[in-house]
Amino acid sequence: MHYRFIYYISLLLLCDGGIISGQIKRSRNEGTFNIPASNVMGNGNITIAAALASTFAPSGVRFDPGAYLAVGIANILQLSGRTAFTNFQTLGTTDAHLQLTMPGNDRLRFFGVSISGDLYLSTEMDTLTGTATTGKPEYHAYIRPSMTVDLDWIAKKKKVPLKTYLMLGMVDNPDLLFLYAQLSVKLGIELKFDRNSYSLDCGTGFYRELQRDESGFAGDPSYLQQRVWLEPAIRFRLFKRYSLLGAVRVLVFQRQKTERPLEPHYVRLSLAFEAPLLYRETGSEAIRSMIFVEKNKVEKPDTIDASINKGKQLTTKNKLSIEGLDIELEDGESEKEMLKRREEIQKKMEEIELLLEDLE
User: N or C of the chain: less Cβ packing under 10 Å?
Assistant: First the structure.
């Protein structure tokens, strides 16, 4: 009995370790921590996520827990949105994104591009413009476009599980849209393995302070302030469906004005949990899974052969045990009982050998 138990456990571990990777459920638009892929969810698919970010700045530490929802409404269109609660108390920035991708982007391809209309509902306390006061802040809505281009290198060469991203937009920090016109350039590189992914994002933000009529400030003539940041991240797959993401953003460079300088955000720590609720596998993910299955068959023959050889050794030991059992049975049991027990043991051995054959 214990031999069969060992083989069942070994087989389950091998399968969970990635040999059978087709069961892993991914969202089509899984990208890096800051850049979504140009793919969309796909009609009828739904993904939810919860996130927590903490930012370290001269003004103190800020926490932003939030929630995210994405819904595929067509094969080339999806709607997503998120909201945050600053310091677990007040409603922070809420945004919604309508993303349109190119036809055929649900296949495993090399080049992909999408455009997005981004709506930001800023609830940052705007006490610097208009008639806002500390006790009565003004809240504003902003619509900004963005574009994402990505290259999936595994479509060119199966041994290169690399995906690169470029995102151009007009928002670097949504909380400051009431105060600054912004431009944003983000670059990302991702090693997209069959289970887990590792990425590195680099972003540059350009800030131009807006005109304020009530104070007579004419605004900046150009984007006088800039900042550059780096953010490594990991996507760890849980139970082949859920994802746990972690990222650390570090400020690399910032150029500030002498008057009213842009506050630097030195470090940001982020955690997120992502779960696809409704999921239908697409052509791109099915092909990607097949590539990794074939790759694992080539890269892991030693592991499989070792398991098979171990099984054959255990089978040999089992046969030796049976021979020893025969001697004991001849002394104390009838020939009928001996044959019955031998048949039972032989049947269990055959079950183990069938498992080994399936694995081989």
Answer: N
The whole-angstrom separation of Cα 242 and Cα 26 is 8
Averaged pLDDT, 120-138: 63
Q: Which two tokens mark 172?
A: 């670097």
Strand 60-74 relative to strand 77-86: parallel, antiparallel, unpaired?
antiparallel
* Of 284, 274, 287, 277, the residue nearest 75 (C-alpha): 284
Interior CA angle at 22 toward 151 and 16, to 5°?
115
Q: Amino acid letter at 143?
A: I
List, in sequence order, the alpha helices (H) in the chain: 2-14, 283-299, 301-332, 335-359
In CATH, what number is assigned to the domain containing residue 91?
A: 2.40.160.40
Is residue 113 a contact partner of residue 79, using CB atoms and an 8 Å limit? no
- Asked whether 207 and 230 are in contact (CB, 8 A), the reply is no
Whole-prediction pTM value?
0.73
Residue 117 structure tokens: 């209309």
Question: Which secondary-structure segment (H or E) carries 146?
Answer: strand 138-152
Q: What was the pLDDT predicted at 281?
A: 61
Burial of 249 (0-12, 13-18, 19+ CB in 10 A): buried
Q: Which of 21-25, 79-83, 318-322 has the lowest mean pLDDT?
A: 318-322
**Secondary structure (DSSP) of 12-32:** HHHIIIIIS-TT----TT---
Distance CA 169, CA 182 (A): 8
Residue 272 lies in a domain: yes
Rounded CA separation 40/60 (Å): 37
Strand intervals (E) in 58-110: 60-74, 77-86, 90-101
Let me know: does 169 contact 190? Beta carbons within 8 Å: no
Range of the domain at 348: 1-25+283-360
Q: What six digits make up the tokens of 116?
A: 């997005």
Given a cut of 70, whether residue 148 has pLDDT beyond it is yes
Residues 111 and 159 grouped into a single domain? yes
